[in-house]
Amino acid sequence: MAKELTKPLEGLFNRVYDIFSIVDRLPDDMTDAEVEGVLHVLPTDLRRTMSAFLAPRLREASLEFLRLIKRWLEGARRAKEEGKKVVLVPFNFPPEVIYGFEGAWPITSEVLTTLGVAALEGQGERYWDFAMGLGLPDFACSANMIEVGSALTETDFAPDIVLNDCFASCDINSKTHEFLARYLGLPLVFLEKPPDDTPRGIRQYYRYFRAMLSDLEEILGEKLREERIREVLDRANRASEFYWELWDLHKFKPCPVPNAFSLMTYGIRYTMWGQEEAVSAMEKLVKIAKDRLSRKEYPAEREVARAWWTYTSYYFDMPGFFNWMEENGITHLGDGLDLVFPRIIPLDDMDSMVEGMAETARNMPMTRQMGASSMSAQWLEDIIWATRELDADCCIYCGHHSCKQTWSGAAVVRRELLARTGIPTLVLQGDAWIKRMTSMESLQEQIKEFVDNVVAKKREGRRPTRRKPASAAEAPAG
Ligand code: SF4
Fold first, then answer.
1. Which residue's C-alpha comes closest to atom 5 of ligand 1?
2. Longest CA–CA separation in the chain, Å
3. What integer is the mean pLDDT of 340-345?
4. Owning domain of residue 73
5. How many domains does the chain have?
6. Whose CA is nearest to atom 3 of ligand 1?
7. How confident is the model at residue 41 (pLDDT cuts 50, 70, 90)?
């Protein structure tokens, strides 16, 4: 007899929202003893995450960041109560476009998944398992399937509209969002990216973007107002200026920007860009990095490696990842999700603002690389640019289990990067959002070996030498 599918009793959004309701009660000036006290009463998975965020060097930034996330979650709850529509978007869609509507509020699948993995006991595994139990394929991307799995339980806070911005940049992400909309009977809005980056393809993308706005206007029953868009984009522009300032601060050695700021930067970008909270959170990150620079603070004795993560990072063990790296002198300069290329949008008239938003959307991570006419060429170009800008001495590809997209180009990108810049890439295996695939201890071991044996020797000016096989019998097969 077929076993009945066990449905999680509570959804991810609702549980995360409950946890974040305590954030406003944490005082700004928490002492180490108070932090200890708070950590002591938290369940294990949340305790690990909070121990990373509340480390003394991160505490001030983390509180600002966590409060911003709380306001974002609350905004979605309140929007529903006030009869506004909640629009579920993937991370590669700029949320400021949704803030342009008075009657809408964005929630982002991958951010919700990350919050669930970081904050919930048992992380996001029950939602992933539920989705698999429905018969969905295990090659789906955990980044979005965990949140979508929760929505599919129909016990969670649900969006009113699904916006699919992965058409042509990530098929599995696109299908996952489409499936959710069809399953729950929600309106589905598409934004397609033509795989043509010539002026003709760009003009076509702008047309698709305008069509997507018209679809939203029709479903929301609201015309975009020029004055409101200008206000939202003015705030987005101010946040973008801080983004570039923070980018430049990464160029100092040792890097004064804590590793976790990489995650916080895109956490802000994908949620509240276009709101005042994003401006002040980005300003805070810049201020803290500048203060650390003036005090020459770095968490290890010396910076032994400057690593650029070529696509995503890992999110299931914050202290074991971000904090561990910098405590071992390995700077995380950023990852592919930080490549949001924010631009200052001219606010002259409706046309320039709409075109500015379209161009922003076209250059969001994943859309820009995986939706390009040559995925590996564009991805490589962006990695080379970032590594040169920030003087990285190594790259790490996290080998995200779910990401067939990037796996298909990883080998060629690694080879070409080495040939053109001399920068080696460590290729790992594991799921960025599911700890069951590869343990953090194993990942740390591989990162450490790479840094000690490849990066350190490169820094000393010695190429790592390969031991010559003594005889044909010792040579690797094939
Ligand atoms: S991580 Fe890979 S599979 Fe997942 S949404 Fe991004 S491109 Fe798609």
1. 173
2. 76
3. 95
4. 12-226
5. 2
6. 403
7. confident
